[in-house]
Amino acid sequence: MLFLFTQKTFHTMYAFKPHIIFLSLLISSFISFAQDSPNFFRIGLIADIQYADKADSKTRFYRSSDHKLQEAVASLNKEDLAFTAVLGDLVDEGPKDLQPIMDLLNQLNAAHYQLLGNHDYPKVYEHDLYRQFDMPHPYYTVEKDNWQFIFLNTNELASYAVEEGSKLERAYQKLITQVKAEGRSNAQPWNGGIAKKQFKWLKRKLKAAEREGKKVVVFSHHPFLPANGLETLNSPELIALFVKYNTVKAVISGHHHPGNFEMYEGIPFITLEGMVETVDNAFGYMDIYPNKLIIHGEGRLTSRELPIR
């Protein structure tokens, strides 16, 4: 019955029955309560800050990312966030420029969780790099209400991330050889993939989430779809896994600064616009409901309303 009342209806009713104002206030209170209920919460979204203390390069404004992030933090702090997800490439040339960015992220009122991007790796291999980025593990989960957020490490098998002579380096060489043999365009030095151990971990998490009735959002740095040369090296196997488990409601990534989107088998694959790209800012937040996701974009970040399967 509430949906039959429009703003015009209320204005007309006010003219003749002032006591109806009480009903209007009651409905407003109901809506507010619905948004504050356990069935609704909000998370922040940031991708590809890619800060560096160096000159700009074509459409990338490295030093400006400091000021853009300040603006994003101030804006996100006005929202009631459960947490903010930062989807990699916090810096452009490894952790030497990281501290100013971490200082700003630590000014967020809510918790922030990040994952590594290809630009976060230094030129020389560093063991346990994730610790410098205040991450609990190279890949991990965060839970809120009946939702599970999976933060993947799509850099695990990459030319810039594996130690020379290691088991992971051999696995990377095998994977990149396979990708090239298949003629796929993503066999590039800035792309990475997931090793068997992490794949098995992901499968266990999805299986458990389905058994427990939890809904899952997957975060990654490298996207999976659309296929445009920037996707995760072993994306076909991972996409098949996401589709298999109905518990996966969305996959959200960074890496491709212009942003992208594809709906596949009922799953929205979203690539967020990168903060470093162009003079305009890019960040936002996502409202999470039982039956839909709503992304509110600021600057270049695209706003979307997505039904979930």
Automatic annotation (TrEMBL):
Gene Ontology MF: a single term: CDP-glycerol diphosphatase activity
Domain of life: Bacteria
Entry-linked InterPro entries: Calcineurin-like_PHP, Metallo-depent_PP-like
Domain Calcineurin-like phosphoesterase: 41-258
Record protein name field: Metallophosphoesterase
Organism: Sphingobacterium humi
